[in-house]
Design goal:
This is IFT25 protein. The chain is mainly β. The chain has no helices and two strands.
Length: about 60
């Protein structure tokens, strides 16, 4: 919810990593943003945040 969570790094490119304790199926991602040129969503099935593969780029 935009009322309960807000993040910004103030510099470019910006990166945000979310980790789950085990593999989960995500069927929908909602993002609210302003003046974003490109948005890319990637995933990794590794225990560490490495080996990402691109899911979508808009």
């Amino acid at each position: 919810s935009s009322e309960t969570f807000w993040t910004t790094t103030g510099m470019f490119p910006q990166e945000f990593i979310i980790a789950f304790p085990k593999c989960v199926k995500i069927s929908k991602v909602a993002i609210q943003c302003y003046l974003v040129r490109t948005l890319r969503i990637e995933r990794s099935t590794s225990q560490e945040p490495v080996g990402f593969e691109q899911c979508v780029e808009k």
